[in-house]
Design a protein that fits this description.
The protein is an alpha/beta fold and about 375 residues long. The protein has two domains: about 5-275, Acetylglutamate kinase-like (Carbamate kinase, 3-Layer(aba) Sandwich), CATH 3.40.1160; about 285-375, Archaeosine Trna-guanine Transglycosylase, Chain: A, domain 4. It has helices spanning about 5-10, 25, 35-50, 60-70, 80-100, 120-135, 160-170, 205-210, 225-235, 250-255, 275-280, 295-300, 345-350, 355-360; strands at about 15-20, 55-60, 110-115, 140-145, 175-180, 200, 240-245, 265, 290, 310-315, 325, 335-340, 375. Strands 3-4-2-1-5-7-8-6 form an eight-stranded mixed beta sheet, with helices on both faces. Helix 6 links the parallel strand 3 (about 110-115) and strand 4. The chain is globular. It starts with a helix and ends with a strand. It binds glutamic acid. Glutamic acid (GLU) binds near residues 63 and 144. Glutamic acid binds near residues 61, 64, 86, 221 and 222.
């Protein structure tokens, strides 16, 4: 299939899309909200909604807009000041989304999330139901991290990562990340005039990861590296990603007209379920279990559960039902999963046979350490 045909096929099937807009896209050089961008994006959302496409927006810009309103030149280094800027900016951000969408008879619906809201599966599903109801009412969900109350333990970290989790939460079929450059280049376009845009990335392999320069800007938390990581995460859920320039007028409409704008990153063929995606990417691993080659092969090639006998070592302090990373003997992570036993118990039964569990621990929960239904093989 040609690149054009691939685009057409992908965008032609989209019923629900997550669009992430970065701080640099939504604000001007003086950190005020960019009227041109908001006008273009909300006009496009209205026009495309009329064709049956539902939009879920992940909007950065709270801190940036707060900085503009408070007259700050740089992102505050003190966490509480950054949170205060977000508290001021989130209001103006939402007021502007509402104002611009209301020109088309649509409402903005503010959804502020912390990691704590989605790391419990029930709360994750509750958030999903709320999101569906917002869409049924014809409103446009505008999601952001709840920056004002987040501290490290409940932080997503950056909105690129958040947007990739939202594709699962919203059960969307496309992720669009709008940034202030045209897409992914074969080298850094800011320092290399010959840099070429990559229109299509079939899979995010090591060569792509090496390409991506992880530079950090003063305002947004992610560089291209976090966008590629988000695309890789979405790809495992069977969702393609388009990284494109949100400052350029008409980008959204061009994407849905199947024009070659930005970089399209294709989804993986073997998509994992929503629950497995949540285990692997929404949950943060609380520890590491290193396994021997036999266990690695059984898990990766035969889809087997992890038993105590294959475990070489355990790191971290975690309880049963928590997410952990599985590494091979070289320390390379190849799987994630939910454990049936806590780290202390696993340390005592590592390397043993299943029928020795009860004898050593004095209790028996399950024969497996990670059941294959709770396990995700990465990549
Ligand atoms: N949540 C932040 C804000 O609204 C942006 C985070 C990011 O840029 O990734 O300002």
């Amino acid at each position: 299939m040609s690149a054009d045909a691939i685009r057409k096929d992908i965008v032609g099937k989209v019923r629900r899309v997550v669009v992430k807009l970065g701080s640099y896209v939504l604000t001007t050089a003086s950190w005020s909200l960019d009227r041109k961008v908001f006008t273009d994006v909300t006009d496009s959302i209205a026009a495309l909604r009329a064709t049956g496409i539902e939009f879920v927006v992940v909007s950065s810009g709270a801190v940036a807009s707060g900085m503009g309103r408070l007259g700050l030149k740089e992102r505050p280094r003190v966490l509480q000041q950054e949170q205060a800027a977000a508290a001021v900016g989130q209001i103006s951000l939402m007021a502007y989304w509402e104002k611009m969408l209301s020109r088309h008879g649509m409402h903005a619906a503010q959804i502020l999330l912390t990691h704590g809201d989605v790391r419990d599966r029930k709360r994750f599903l509750n958030a999903r139901h709320t999101l569906s109801s917002v869409l049924e009412f014809g409103a446009v969900p505008i999601i952001n991290e709840n920056d004002t109350v987040t501290v490290d333990e409940i932080k997503f970290g950056d909105n690129d990562y958040l947007s990739s989790l939202v594709t699962n939460l919203a059960q969307a079929d496309l992720l669009i990340i709008l940034t202030d450059i045209d897409g992914v280049y074969d080298c850094d376009p800011r320092t290399n005039a010959d840099a070429k845009l990559l229109p299509l990335i079939k899979t995010v392999d090591e060569s792509i990861e090496e390409l991506v320069f992880g530079s950090k800007s003063k305002i947004s938390r992610g560089g291209m590296a976090t966008k590629i990581k988000a695309a890789k995460t979405a790809a495992l859920f069977g969702v393609p990603t388009i990284i494109a320039n949100g400052k350029r007028a008409g980008t959204l409409q061009d994407i849905f007209a199947a024009k070659q704008v930005g970089t399209l990153i294709l989804p993986e063929k073997n998509k994992i379920t929503s629950r497995k995606h949540w285990i692997a990417f929404t949950l943060k691993p609380h520890g590491i279990i290193c396994v021997d080659d036999g266990a690695k092969t059984a898990m990766m090639d035969k889809g087997r559960s992890l038993l105590p006998s294959g475990i070489v070592s355990v790191k971290g302090d975690f309880g049963p039902d928590e997410a952990i990373s599985c590494c091979d003997k070289d320390g390379v992570e190849f799987a994630r999963g939910l454990v049936k036993y806590g780290s202390g118990d696993i340390d005592k039964i590592k390397g043993l046979k299943t029928d020795q569990i009860e004898e050593v621990l004095g209790h028996f929960a399950e024969p497996e350490i990670i059941h294959r239904d709770d396990m995700v093989i990465l990549g």
